[in-house]
Design a protein that fits this description.
The chain has about 750 residues and is α/β, with parallel strands linked by helices. The chain contains 29 helices and 15 strands. Keywords: Membrane, Transmembrane, Transmembrane helix.
């Protein structure tokens, strides 16, 4: 429906322009040679008839108030057409030479303008606060008074109107009504803020209100030609403006909606400026200001002063609101980190600061959705506030981290917060059990401003030990934090200086001991310093985010070595296992990084196995999706330390695993009782049934290797076979069974 309507509107706009051009051409011809007095009226009728049809089209595509507005505009155009008809009858059929128009014509023109003005006035406006409504009322009053001042001066300068002629009075009323329609349109669009769907069309139509005053001004000039009058000159233009406005309306409704922006209305300022110019001109011309204009200027000045005062008050309220928003969280309404730290900086009395964050909130938010996540945060804010009481400052510090500032010393505050969240939260008519991990710090005097840092340090230390934990700050944590900061800086320098290297621990096939694969293990030896254990620097890399860059280097180096073995040994070359951390699995570029490395080195995907931990993918979400994308590349996926994490058997159904690496703790129990060997035996059976490869880790003796083979294991790894060695030493083992360390 919309496309045909737009094409119809386009066609009607062309017709309206053609009628207006025809009227102009006929008018010029009449100036050059004698013509009948009715010459232009047919083009006028055609233009206004076209406007009626265009308004009907705009009404058909609109809805609600828009449809009703254009239906009323079509009635206004019909009244305008009726006025033209009465003028034709009076001037052509009855031979009445009254100019510029008959009283009936003037009345119908005034009725058309008045009805159009009423249609615009009745358009609904958006709901406003009382302050905004007052500002709108003052803007309307300013424009109204300014318009009244200008119109009053215009009437006083009209000698015929001052003489009180009925005909002149009728015409002047028509002019005033038509001019007022423009004022109403401009006010409706610019000041009161009517619907965006009709605003462009009303701006296009607004000049129609100037046609009445223009006709009055032009009439003395047009008296020289019988075929010209103010009415016959301006009526075709009115039809053209209505048609163009209807075309704009149709185009607006049928096109893609554009975002609307609230702009400052310049109309009141323009109105004041016009009135001021006129007052100055009158004063300079006459040497004084007439009483009616003086009264209008006083009223205008008072209104402008009140409007500016209202604007100042609004600005003050807005500044207060902005100040509140700067220091409070929009979601929970709690103070934010800025207000929390400001309050803390002003204290010297004994103070306790505790911080806590929700365990696993990111995974919950992914599973339940942002709306439920927001509701969960609000419920958590209520719980923290209820637990701590009213004499404290509770703030939302970060996404799911809350802070508590309490007067006095209470080292148990962190434990209190942890205990409080062991009761489920009520979120959207359901109970959710969400635990927290918390840290606390206490102090007085100059130490108080630093309590937030110390509490967050205690929180991080608690997280290292697991979830649902509490930790109090101690001096040892500061030393550890300093060491970790120095270690993180050293990690960055080490990457840049090439201080890292990869060692490979063989994965052998039982019972022959031939090398089937290798696990890549990173080592760090800073220049002229002792080797730093991975157990020390890997957690720091995880926490600092450097694990992403470090992991990229490991993938690149391991793929290069695997490609070299594939080139030398073909299918007999060892598969390479690469460990990937939980932080790396949350990086969406990881699958692409692996794919690029495989392509760059010409390595087939089945020569690589990505090792992950159960904990890293236990919560599902983005980490599990990354694992699936890696598996789709064709690389293997090994579940490391299997049996020691969360819900291992469930993961075998949801995670695309190809290899199980049985944890050393189960291997240590071999050669004992049947009960001790039961788990190792069961895991081998599960792997075999599911078509997975089982690798026993931590094999340290030949007896363990023999027993593992008897239990069904075909692959093993441990110091009994080889310690981690450089890549160049792997070649020496590829053709020799590795049966002893």
């Amino acid at each position: 429906m919309t496309r045909p309507s737009l094409r119809t509107a386009n066609l009607l706009a062309v017709w309206a322009a053609a009628w207006a051009l025809a009227a102009l051409a006929l008018g010029v011809v009449g100036v050059l040679r004698p013509v009948p007095s009715w010459l232009i009226w047919p083009a006028t009728v055609g233009g206004i008839g076209t406007a009626i049809a265009a308004c009907r089209v705009a009404s058909a595509v609109g809805e609600g108030p828009v449809r009703l507005l254009w239906r009323r505009f079509s009635i206004a155009c019909s009244l305008l057409l009726a006025g033209v008809g009465t003028q034709i009858v009076s001037q052509v059929i009855l031979g009445n030479a009254l100019k510029p128009m008959s009283p009936i014509t003037a009345a119908l023109f005034a009725a058309a303008a008045g009805y159009a003005m009423l249609a615009v006035f009745r358009l609904p406006t958006a709901r406003r606060t009382w302050r905004a409504a007052l500002a709108t009322f003052l803007d309307v009053a300013i424009v109204g008074v300014a318009a009244a001042v200008v119109l009053t001066h215009f009437l006083r300068r009209t000698p015929d109107f001052a003489a009180g002629s009925p005909m002149t009075t009728t015409l002047m009323v028509t002019v005033v009504v038509i001019a007022s329609s423009t004022i109403v349109m401009v006010l409706k669009v610019s000041v009161t803020g009517t619907a965006a769907a009709v605003a462009p069309a009303l701006w296009a139509l607004a000049p129609a209100g100037l046609l009445g005053p223009a006709a009055w001004v032009l009439q003395p000039v047009l008296d020289h030609w019988p075929h010209l009058s103010g009415a016959v000159v301006t009526a075709p233009i009115a039809g053209l403006l209505f048609t163009l406005a209807a075309w704009v309306q149709t185009r607006t409704v049928t096109s893609e909606p554009r975002p609307t922006r609230r702009r400052i209305s310049l109309v009141p300022y323009i109105a004041v400026g016009v009135a001021l110019v006129m007052l100055i001109t009158v004063t300079l011309h006459t040497g004084f200001l007439p009483p009616d204009l003086a009264g209008g200027s006083v009223a205008l000045t008072v209104l402008v002063m009140i409007r500016q005062l209202a604007a100042l008050l609004d600005n003050a309220v807005l500044l207060d609101r902005m100040e509140d928003q700067v220091h409070h969280d929009d979601l929970t309404g709690l103070p934010n980190r800025r207000l929390f730290t400001t309050t803390l900086a002003e204290r010297t009395a004994p103070t306790t600061v505790a911080v806590c964050d929700l365990d696993g909130f990111a995974a919950l938010n992914d599973q339940l959705g942002d709306d439920t996540g927001d509701a969960l945060l609000r419920a958590a804010a209520v719980r923290v506030t209820a637990v701590t009481g009213g004499a404290v400052v509770v703030a939302r510090l970060l996404g799911d981290e809350f802070g508590v500032l309490m007067p006095g010393i209470d080292a148990e505050l962190a434990e209190t917060l942890v205990d409080a969240f062991r009761t489920p939260l009520r979120v959207d008519d359901r109970d959710l059990l969400v635990t927290v991990t918390s840290g606390v710090a206490t102090g007085a005097g100059k130490a108080v401003p630093d309590l937030l840092r110390r509490a967050e340090l205690a929180l991080q230390a608690a997280k290292y030990t697991g979830a649902d934990r509490a930790r109090e700050h101690s001096g040892a944590l500061d030393a550890t934090a300093q060491h970790h900061a120095e270690l993180a800086a050293g990690l960055r320098r080490g990457l840049e200086r090439g201080e890292f290297k990869l060692l490979y621990q063989p994965i052998v096939e039982l019972p022959s001991g031939s090398v089937a694969g290798v696990e890549a293990l990173i080592r760090w030896q800073p220049n002229d310093q002792p080797v730093i254990s991975p157990a020390e620097f890997i957690p720091v890399a995880e926490h600092s985010g450097l694990i992403i860059d470090l992991g990229a280097w490991i993938i690149e180096t391991a793929c290069a070595d695997a490609a070299a073995w594939q080139l030398r040994y073909g299918a007999a070359g060892p598969r390479v296992n690469i460990n990937v951390s939980a932080r790396q699995l949350l990086d969406p570029v990881l699958p692409g990084m692996v794919a690029d490395a495989l392509h760059r080195h010409g390595l087939t995907p089945d020569r690589i196995t990505i090792e992950i931990t159960e904990t890293a993918v236990f919560a599902g979400g983005a980490a599990l999706e990354t694992v699936r994308e890696l598996r789709e590349l064709g690389v293997g996926v090994a579940l490391d330390d299997f049996g020691t994490g969360h819900s291992s058997l469930t993961l075998l159904r949801t995670c695309p695993v190809t290899t199980l690496k049985v944890d050393k703790s189960f291997i240590d129990d071999l050669n004992g009782t049947a009960e001790q060997e039961a788990i190792a035996s069961s895991l081998s059976t599960i792997a075999s049934t599911l078509g997975l490869r089982a690798v026993a880790e931590g094999v340290e003796t030949q007896d363990q290797a023999d027993r593992l083979h008897a239990l069904g294991y075909r692959y093993a790894q441990g110091f009994h076979f080889s310690r981690p060695i450089p890549a160049v030493d792997i070649d020496a083992l590829l053709n020799t069974p590795v049966l002893t360390a």
